[in-house]
Amino acid sequence: GDGSRARAFGDAFARVLEACRGLTCEGDEDALERTTREAARSEASTSYGDDAPWTGLNCLEMCRVRDGLLRSHGFYDCFARVKREENRAALKTLPSVLADVDAKADDAERLMNVVRGCFAGNIFDLGAAESAALFGNGGGDFASTKDTLKKRPWCVDDFDALKTRWLDGKPHAKAIMFVDNSGADVILGMIPFARELLRRGTQVVLAANSVPSINDITAEELVEHILPALVNLGDTILSPAIADGRLRVVASGSDMPVIDLRYLSEEIVNEAKDADFVILEGMGRGIETNLFAKFS
Prior knowledge:
This protein is of the alpha/beta class.
């Protein structure tokens, strides 16, 4: 019930606050803890009105409250340093990941390779307790993570349908990729997938958070740091695509690690009007808030 979810909210918030302390993030910790306890109590009894597609407390609203409280008490971008370090490490690994993709001559093999790369990359989530523990214990090599992924069939497995569309249909005109975490997730997971789409002639729009939230990549970070680094790699697919705008970044309008598709930026809504491929990557965007989303 909502009471147990409120308690879970309080417990999860305590872990986030502890992470903020460990990252030496500025903010009023005492006031934040008091406000968090009050929010956890009040959220369980909050009514969201007749137009809300849920009853009581849920993941979307917990994230909305949590991030709002963090920012209102001065905890704006506590993972900034960690994100920079993870991005630098992933960029060093990217050439070998791309070489592994290019070593697959068959289109279907390359598709499987980049899809598995997305799965492996999303495991590199320092905003999730289990993943953070893995890295804290010295684990987390991308190649070995990819090699040890669960074999098919997956829990939800529509790969055959994707492969059929990929091999037998004409290339997609435009793909919008709602990206998730900094570091290996976006750089080693989503960028190779975007590159494979570009290879086929598809325009790719990377949709990222407008405002920092835990360790998620932001549109600003992609534009200012990641795209220039990709250009400097001299890759024959990525560099020209960035130069001519076939690979570009748009702020999604989101300020949470999940996404509410009812409230997006005007820019991404306009980009979506002629898109024929939408990718919601990550647990927050793809499962916790949009598992049953329908697209026209």
